[in-house]
Design goal:
single chain; 286 residues; alpha/beta; four-stranded parallel sheet; 43% helix
Length: 286
């Protein structure tokens, strides 16, 4: 059995930067409150909780003067205002690419565009971007709904969730081109996301199956799984090495391994170790 790693894969720059900031804050302050899960990976969250992380849902849950961490997904401006009122020590881990999407959305709204955010309506990143829009706004998924506000607007500005599949953005933009007089598109898809998706797309053509590792609550991991599925290549989605179904592995000569942008290195190393141990064991048995 041979194993081929998607390249690049695993933690992206923005998530790695945010986790580094969070770990520094934990070492300095001992206890840090995160407004929402700091990373869409339950195993990594449990590790950080053992170091003093406290995950809360609202700014009101952060004690006066406490240290609060803003995850890579960012937050709406009103949440930052509430935290400042509580005199918190703010550690801002917002990904620079997410911040760019927030700033572009704000700029478009100030210039009078009806802002369309393409992405998952309930995703925290999208909620944060939407909070920066000062005028008319709509969030749409790749399956474009009939949105009266968009149809009645002659000037539409588009931004998107940084982890969106590029083909999904193209589909939305193509549809909007036939419905508006002026369309301004800001491609805010993170390049790291595109590279990871492209690497999985290429890998799908070279292997007998792909193991995708990442949190079940990770949107970017889900998109990697969808890309493999659309290629027709068998795929197994796992969060950690112990979930691997060895019956699925049997009969495959070459396996691909990919990981979502919120999958920490230590989980990927555990999977490598498990696969190598199995290969060595079979080699000795043979």
């Amino acid at each position: 059995m041979n194993y081929v790693m998607a390249d690049p894969t695993g933690l992206c720059f923005g998530v790695r930067r945010a986790i580094d900031q969070l770990e520094d804050a934990l070492r300095l302050h001992g206890e840090v409150y995160a407004l929402g899960s700091p990373i869409h990976n339950p195993q990594e969250v449990r590790r950080l909780e053992k170091c003093g992380l406290r995950v809360v849902r609202t700014p009101q849950e952060v004690p006066e003067g406490g240290t609060v961490f803003i995850r890579a997904h960012g937050v709406p401006p009103e949440d930052l205002d509430l935290l400042q009122v509580r005199h918190t020590n703010l550690v801002d881990g917002t990904c620079p690419f997410v911040r760019k999407a927030q700033e572009e959305a704000k700029r478009l709204s100030r210039e009078g565009y009806f802002v369309v955010i393409v992405g998952d309506t309930d995703h925290p990143e999208v909620k944060g971007i939407r909070g920066h829009v000062e005028g008319k706004v709509a969030v749409i998924n790749p399956a474009l709904p009939e949105e009266p506000g968009i149809l009645s607007s002659s000037r539409v500005g588009v931004v998107c969730q940084t982890t969106l599949r590029e083909e999904s953005l193209i589909k939305i933009v193509s549809t909007l081109l036939t419905r508006t007089e002026e369309l301004h598109v800001c491609n805010t898809i993170c390049r790291a996301t595109m590279l990871r998706q492209d690497s999985v797309r290429k890998l799908s053509k070279k292997v007998d199956g792909i193991i995708v590792m990442g949190g079940r609550n990770s949107a970017n991991t889900h998109k990697l799984v969808q890309i493999v599925q659309s290629s027709g290549t068998p795929v197994q989605w796992i969060e950690q090495a112990e979930e691997l179904d060895w019956r699925w592995v049997e009969g495959k000569n070459t396996l691909g391994i990919a990981a979502g942008a919120s999958t920490p290195d230590w989980l990927i190393h555990e999977l490598h170790h498990k696969l190598e141990s199995s290969r060595l064991s079979k080699g000795m048995d043979g």
